[in-house]
Protein: Nocturnin
Amino acid sequence: MSASSYNEFIPHEVQQNILLPSVKRRFISNYTLKTGDHAINVLQWNILAQALSYSEGNFVRVKDEFVAYETRKWRILEQILIHQPDLCSLEEVDIYDCFLKEQLNKYGYNCYFTPKPNSKCLSFEDDLNNFKGPDGILLCYKNNIFREINRSSSDLPNDGRVGRQVFSIIELEHIPSSSLLVFIGTHFKAKKQFALSRTNQANALVDFLNKTYTTKTNIILAGDFNGETDEPFYEILLKAGFHSAYRVLMNNHEPSYTTWKFKSREEIREKEEKLPTKTDIGPDGLPSANYPSDHVALQSIFLIRT
Structure:
């Protein structure tokens, strides 16, 4: 996608609320559609909960106006519309009821929101400017491409800390091909010291899938897994039969980072689309005036071959 093609997907009502151009992205395509092929555009993105976006003592290089709700909500919607996903998994969503529910419906999306039990956002109820409710997983699909069959959600193992994790599932029929698929969104426990929690969460998720679906079921798993590829959770998912979309496209390698931010005295870069460069982002990391989250959105094209 070139910069010029971005704007053609952005309605005037969104553009008029955005003052600066978005961070530059470029989609790399290496597939060719054959007769009978159908492409599915899948987006995964941790949008950064509004309640957790404050700058003081948190995103220490970020100006308050960059994370103000009236600024961020339009930039978040802009990024979704820019990518034009058929399926979308968003994490840390706390602005569904107050904004995204109405907006995404306008653009042909049906949505399924699952709030986290004991969300960390509930600790900020006194922040009248930014508290919008608990955060959670938001799954979306284009209602002219998919027909919903069933939806469900489940808690992941609770390690006793604030902010329990969940996974959400929508079972769908792809209308053009009549193919069935299962779309799952999740968000594993963050921070390096909680690798064991991520291992337990991966085991619980795989155990649920093994009990619920056959090995022939088409499953797309999208999420913020919050860990490195040398952690046990990653191998657990691979052994369960999943393949990393980026690893398939990048000669058996994962991207060098998917988040770049400065928190307190730390510089944090985490792995997980051709990613924007630090020059594109700017010296103060994310979020920024041009991008509303500390994580970059990840996009992949899946092919259904009939």
Q: What stands out?
A: The first helix runs from residue 3 to 7. The radius of gyration is 19 Å. The chain has one domain: 3-305. Residues 3-305 form a domain with the Deoxyribonuclease I; Chain A fold (CATH 3.60.10.10).
